[in-house]
């Protein structure tokens, strides 16, 4: 049997390194990287992993290529997915896969035809702390869930962002880009479907980018009436120990859990932490459980028709949830002052 190969078509975000590294771990080699726009990041990644940069994307769709990875501009990922379908190549894309209803409709057609498998880097299901929390929920250690809250602050690093990042039509905006993880986790944690969303997406910075909004606060109702809260922003300070102090809070009738996804320096840790308390157990750190596989290995199992954590259903429903939420929330300009300038 010949060498197992994959390729990268579209390299605009370094999230694609997750896919590259995990494919290497699985014994694959990368045939090349193609990027038709700014190739700065592509060149850095190509040098780091000793991958050739190629001028013709069709050269990466030949018979020897088994799978494609894609981190194109968000609004162009659906084009790459359609191209891969033409050549019979399954594809893993960075999130979000689509940024508007037209893109979703095109993706649904591809999924319905089922000529290829499409994956998306919904990596949080494979985060050890989040995976451990899911096991606790499954085991009934929290009882019936009564509330879920998630916080997802990010560093902006505006000077290093490409122009398309600040354009909502091209990027999708803060809700679609960041909260797609959270909407997926809500469905996974609860086994329930999303019923409705309401909230506010705020803009108080960077007037030179009129469609870039910097905060989002959403209340999500699940189909059993459970209310949850999701929040994200682009205001993690530059001096923070992490790109984003992500937190998840889950309250149940029998227990409470808090995840500190980047650890807590005051607790002497910059690695993920899960804290748990119940009627029987005192507040303490929990030993984390490692997922059964990486997200890339899980996707390869899906391609083979084997059991997998993520399927086309999760891809479509997470994408639809954020698009519906983005249409439902209020977009609002918030008066700003010098004190409220972003941390760049």
UniProtKB/TrEMBL annotation:
Q: What positions does the domain Gfo/Idh/MocA-like oxidoreductase N-terminal occupy?
A: 5-113
Enumerate the UniProt keywords alphabetically.
Oxidoreductase
InterPro entries named in the record: Gfo/Idh/MocA-like_OxRdtase_N, Gfo/Idh/MocA_oxidrdct_glycsds, GFO_IDH_MocA-like_dom, NAD(P)-bd_dom_sf
One function term, GO molecular function aspect: oxidoreductase activity
Q: Which residue intervals define the domain GFO/IDH/MocA-like oxidoreductase in the entry?
A: 132-257
- Asked if the Swiss-Prot or TrEMBL record annotates the protein with the keyword Glycosyltransferase, the reply is no
The protein's matches in Pfam families, at most eight in alphabetical order, are given as:
GFO_IDH_MocA, GFO_IDH_MocA_C3
Q: What is this protein called?
A: Oxidoreductase
Biological source species: Paenibacillus agaridevorans
